[in-house]
Amino acid sequence: MAQVVIAALATVGGVGKSTISVHLADKVSKGRQRVAILDLDPQRSLDVFCGFHTMSNGFYKA
């Protein structure tokens, strides 16, 4: 299967970018597809969604 890249972008905060990203990744992964999420938001909302509450060097083992 071809690689697909989906980006959630907006110029303002609080519009649901992190929420839709984590739910979409969850749905796709349940279809037995491999998923990677890259969060460039300084608020680190995806860290909280995924249960990562501490950060040592900014990278987590997948």
Description:
The protein is an all-alpha fold and 62 residues long. It has helices spanning 17-30, 45-49. The protein has 2 helices and no strands. The mean pLDDT is 83.
Question: Concise description?
Answer:
By secondary structure, the chain is mainly alpha-helical. The chain has two helices and no strands.
Average pLDDT level? 83
- The span between the termini is 21 Å
Order of helices and strands: HH
**Tertiary shape:** globular
Number of domains: 1
Discrete helix count: 2
Helix fraction? 25-40%
Number of strands: 0
Tell me the major beta sheet: none
Cα-atom Rg, whole angstroms? 12 Å
* Quaternary structure of the protein: single chain
Computed structural class: mainly alpha
> Any low-confidence stretches, pLDDT <50, length ≥5?
none
Beta-strand level of the residues, as a percent range?
A: under 5%
Topology:
Elements: H1 17-30, H2 45-49
Tags for this entry?
single chain, 62 residues, mainly alpha, 2 helices, globular
